[in-house]
Specification:
The protein has 215 residues and is mostly helical. Helix content is 85%, strand content 0%.
Length: 215
């Protein structure tokens, strides 16, 4: 049962990432859509919708039908693709592929740590969340300070936080798979959402550190 749920989780995570990247790539080649998203308040609205969908899925997943959970996850992945389109405009494709592969390797390594470790990582989730909130606060502060050195430190800390979350979320999926009161498909969707967020944030942070912009 556990391995079956893990397999479903990674399948749905892959589907989500594929939708996001294909949507972002397609939008980046449509000048009209780019203008509509980035030249007015549309981007902010999309970002707010993303946040609402994450909160809604995470809090209501236990009471949703399988199809509803899938639809909301696909919708989230699509909207993320709309806001993700800017990376295809500002960064070289070769750089994106390079960062994608590094992110996948880090994700694999710490995913395996989370899956095979006998250590209880449940307490680590609290510390990781506190660190994440701290980095968000620092990011907001740095908007007004504008320090490039501080920005790099924040990015590195954020990267480490989401690498930690990868191991934590894998173990958490294993724990949820033993709970009989949650539909196994919904556990897979929730797990896919969490791992999707981990991977995307690892990717974005690495892109900020190592990505090469277009000339």
């Amino acid at each position: 049962m556990e391995n079956k749920i893990i397999s479903k989780t990674f399948i749905w995570m892959f589907i989500g990432l594929l939708i996001t990247f294909l949507t972002g790539f397609g939008v980046s080649h449509n000048e009209t859509m780019i203008i509509n998203i980035y030249k007015n308040s549309t981007y902010i609205i999309l970002a707010i919708i993303e946040l609402i969908l994450v909160i809604f899925l995470s809090s209501r997943i236990q009471k949703m039908s399988r199809n509803s959970a899938r639809i909301f996850f696909i919708l989230y992945s699509f909207i993320s693709g709309l806001t993700f389109s800017s990376i295809f405009i500002f960064y070289k494709i070769s750089s994106l592929i390079y960062i994608f592969l590094i992110s996948a390797l880090l994700f694999l390594i710490f995913g395996l740590v989370g899956f095979f470790t006998k250590m209880d990582l449940s307490k680590m989730g609290t510390y990781l969340m506190m660190a994440l909130i701290g980095t968000i606060i620092c990011f907001i502060i740095n908007i007004f300070i504008g320090s490039s050195q501080f920005d790099m430190i924040i990015t590195i800390i954020s990267l480490l936080v989401f690498i930690g979350f990868t191991a934590y979320d894998i173990q958490n999926i294993k724990r949820l798979s033993t709970m009989s009161n949650i539909d196994s498909d919904n556990i897979a969707i929730l797990g896919a959402l969490n791992l999707y967020l981990d991977y995307i944030n690892v990717f974005i942070n690495l892109l900020s550190l190592l990505g090469k912009s277009k000339d």
